[in-house]
Amino acid sequence: MAITLVNPEGLPKVDIYRQVSVATGSKLVFIAGQVARDADGGRVGEGDLAAQVEQCYLNIATALAEVGGSFDDVAKLTVYLVDWTPDKMPLFVEGVARASAKLGVTPLPPLTGVGVAALAEPDLLVEVEATAVIKSASQP
Questions:
Q1: CA 59/CA 64 separation, integer angstroms
Q2: What is the pTM of this model?
Q3: Nearest to residue 55, comparing CAs of 33, 72, 76?
């Protein structure tokens, strides 16, 4: 793997992700913000934050697979959440947990959550972008 996930001593321990990722690969991958759309562009989880988060993570995994990577190669996620308030955290965590279970990935890489007023389309509640580092075939 090109990514090692770490929770340093002296920082809070977070169950669903690690605070730091160390990248050692050679192919950088930047994935545009993914939203709750299926392969045909159809809406997924309208009005359902957990379902939309799950679909965003699954879309990230699909994009990674296309370039020879997986969630194990993700160095960092940035999550944009519409009208974010702390009471929405359980729905966010539920969506992440469902995606993680489907993808077989725990823990997840570091993430930054950003509350925003709106996204590109009015039905979107969340958008997730990723940065990954994939080892080349010649690296150990």
A1: 9
A2: 0.83
A3: 33
The Cα 76–Cα 123 span in angstroms is 25
- pLDDT tens-digit profile of 91-129? 999 999 999 999 998 888 889 999 999 999 999 999 999
In angstroms, the CA 68 to CA 76 distance is: 17
Do the Cβ atoms of 130 and 64 come closer than 8 Å?
yes
Measure the CA–CA gap between 127 and 33, rounded to whole angstroms: 6
Give residue for tokens 């965003």. 56
Sheet with 126-134: strands ordered across: 27-34, 126-134, 74-82, 111-116
Torsions phi, psi for 47 (to 5 deg): 80, 5
Rounded Cα–Cα distance for residues 132 and 140 (Å)? 18
Composition of the chain by helix, strand, coil, percent to 5: 30, 30, 40
